[in-house]
Each structure stands twice: as structure tokens, then as C-alpha cells.
Amino acid sequence: MSIALFAKQHRRVELMKGYDAMPDATLQECWQRPFYLFARGKGRACRKELWMFGVFVAIMSQGLSRLFDSGALIIIPTLFSIVCCIPHYALMVRRSHDLMLSGWLALLPVGLTFLASVIVTCENMHVGDESLFGGLAIVAIVLAVLSQVPLLCFPSRYPKTVEDTVNDEERDNSWNAVNSIQVGDTTRTY
Fold first, then answer.
1. Residue 131: what are its φ and ψ, rounded to 5°?
2. DSSP 106
3. Sign of the dihedral defined by the CA atoms of residues 14, 15, 20, 21, in that order
4. Quick one: which of 25, 45, 79, 168 could link to 94 by a disulfide (CB 3.0–4.6 Å)?
5. 187: β partners
6. Signal peptide span per the entry (predicted)?
7. Contacts within 8 Å (CB) and 24+ apart, 82-89
8. Radius of gyration of the CA atoms of the chain, in A
9. Residues 61, 150, 13, 172: is their CA dihedral positive or negative?
10. Residue 29: is it exposed, middle or buried by C-beta count within 10 angstroms (0-12/13-18/19+)?
11. Is 52 helix (H, G, I), strand (E, B) or coil?
């Protein structure tokens, strides 16, 4: 059973440093866990961790870009993006492992995005006739987005552990006990 994102819990640092996915992670744990585990090449991450960390990075990048939009402090949003790039990539690798895919597939959207940014930069520096590279950049961006759909949307393919199965059975039994009525020789469940 998932716990709400904003629930107050005791600190679970040892659990956050583990290899298993944390579908019951709070918002703070979703933000911190990629920084704890960015140097490991193994482990799993659930969809919630990837979405929450992505939203955190996007909001912080936008906020810092608007706050420091000119002068020498313009380097701060760039540094934040560079610092968050490696944990985000490691999180995508762990999410690939949760889908029972190779972690190398997480390199595909990163490479396509880099290719598109190089094409756009070269296109901006090019003066004169129009070229076909603008369309190639759009194709690269679309492919990068489409290659992230399995990471962002597909449920875990990792088999459930014995603990998860026992916890599910206990929850179902408690639900049936609360919502059943004994009438004569029969039990009705609502």
C-alpha cells in the first residue's frame, strides 16, 4: 500500500540506500534518494521516484533561471542542472532495471537530446540558405521523448517478493473481515 507523498515519517536512510524500489517513498525521499544512489550501477527505482525527481529538477531549474537571469549569477542555474544531470541519469538506469531492461537503454534519450542540441546550435551558427538539419533536430527530440515513455509509464515488471505477497494477503484479509457480514450459515462480503 502506498503512503501519501506528504506523510511525516521517521528517517529511513538505510532503506533509501538499499537496492529495492521504494513505492511508498515520501516526497523528500524521492528528492534525496537519487543523490544517495547516483554512483551505483545497480538497484531499482519505481515510477514515482522518477516522476518526483524530474518535477523537482524542472521546477528548481525554472525558478533559478528566472531568479538569476542576468549578470555573473547566471552560472547558478547551469551548475544546478549539471549537478542534477548525473543523479537523474542514474535514476533512469535504476528505473530501466525495474522494468527488467538493460541500464544502457537509459543512454538513448540522453544521446538523442544531446544530438538535437548540437544540431540546433550548428543551425543557429549557420547563416544563409535553409538546411534540412532543423527537421532532423525535431525528429531527434521526438525520438528522445518517445524513448522515455516506457520508463515513465510502464509498471514494474520485477516479481513481487514474499513479503509483498504476505502484506497483500493480510490487507485483503483485513478488508474482508471489516466488510463481511455473517448471516446464518453464509458470509456476505460487501
1. -125, 170
2. G
3. negative
4. 45
5. 182
6. none
7. 84/57, 84/60, 86/38, 87/34, 87/35, 87/37, 87/38, 87/53, 88/34, 88/53, 88/54, 88/57
8. 23
9. positive
10. buried
11. helix
